[in-house]
Amino acid sequence: MNELYTQLLTVFLGFFAIMNPIANTAAFAGLVGGRSKSEQVKIATKALLITFFVILSFSFLGKAIFHLFGITIDALRITGGILVFIVGYHMLNGKGSKLHSSECEEESDLAVSPLAVPLLAGPGTIATAMNYSATGGMTGIITTVSVFAVLCFITFICFIFSSNILSVIGKSGLSIVTRLMGLILAVIGTQMIIVGITALVKTIV
After folding, report:
1. Can you give the pTM of this predicted structure?
2. Which of 149, 152, 181, 193 is the most exposed place for a label (fewest CB within 10 A)?
3. Are 123 and 80 contacting, i.e. CB atoms less than 8 angstroms apart?
């Protein structure tokens, strides 16, 4: 029983560190602060459902999917980093991006990208899920998926309360948050690219 608790805690802390719901809540606030409460709930719900099913899929079929398409975690990390950097760059300069502006045709556009992929279900999260699920057989898969479901619920609650924070700080505060989150996203994207390229170079060498 103690081993199970230790495993659950290890998996939770690993996912928490990689997914970082606190930082992603701030990013969520910067991305959807101009939308209504109902829109924010829809975006958060869809983003986290997509995130959960992406991780669920990779927990069960991760290695097979990567092998089938000849995809590597490093390639996914570099591509995801570029996308995150572009979104962050637009936010940092106070310019609307089609990925997170009011011009998006549907809430699902923003929920899918960049929120679900690659911010929530990014390369690091996918790699973590594949690692935990691959080392423990079916028990490892069930543990990984269950813990991640709990983390998704926690993140959802954080996302919902982010709108209350924005209502307090006002439009000027939203502008500041947007630019700060743009900087953070740009740095996250850059870090993802660096890690991906470094690992790729090590593999080649």
Report:
1. 0.71
2. 149
3. yes
